[in-house]
């Protein structure tokens, strides 16, 4: 006997549709070095639809890999939503890796297209021959830097989005199919790839929202300091979309002083970063007692945290 209950695939596209329809007024906030860019989930996910249409027009089909080489920002969030939801596989490249490691990873993963922040594009020169096309992202307020000669088609992110509609017919995807992948670093031999399924990502986000985990809700504002190229940002991105929590993405501003400013000005209730970041923030606050000491739920992982202030 089978149940008569509604059965749905646990996919990232389900999270995206839910966020757009139920939590459309929640915000994504990104510092730009001068102030902040803010956009509603509804608008961001509309741009994700534009990106999916653009990638489909460039020939990306199910199971093909689309790489990102970006800071944690709104544009990276759009890729987080668009790429796996269209059935392709999101491959987040670690901008901290050596050029030879990046070249190996891009070739091993068979990346077809890369979405690259213009500010870090020169770091990727040796890996570019593996790509069919390069899409350069340069958010408003940031002066674009030229790509080194790579012999590949280079497209401007905002231009290709402007040519596409916001609506995209998100396909039905097997929840056990690949959604995203990343590679290890600091191990013996070449970096090793890890592939996340839609199901595992969905359940991880759902667990983060439970009371015995992070208890994330639409009343929260999450500051995801942990990079989006590192272990899917610990699931914070999809947990925010699922719950309707506002999302603060720090872009390149990862030093203690700008982070404290971001914390003071955006007032997050939850923040996630490795202990080295929190230790730097702690030392900065000790030497600058006039600054606000943060009060929120913080998530350290990967090392030993210094005693809390």
From TrEMBL:
Residue ranges occupied by any AMP-dependent synthetase/ligase domain in the UniProt entry: 31-286
InterPro entries assigned: AMP-binding_CS, AMP-dep_synth/lig_dom, ANL_N_sf, ATP-dep_AMP-bd_enzyme
Highest taxon of source: Bacteria
Taxonomic classification: Bacteria, Bacillati, Actinomycetota, Actinomycetes, Mycobacteriales
TM region positions: none
Pfam families documented for this protein: AMP-binding
Organism field: Mycobacterium timonense
Protein name: AMP-dependent synthetase/ligase domain-containing protein
PANTHER family reported in the protein's UniProt record: LONG-CHAIN-FATTY-ACID--COA LIGASE, MEDIUM-CHAIN-FATTY-ACID--COA LIGASE
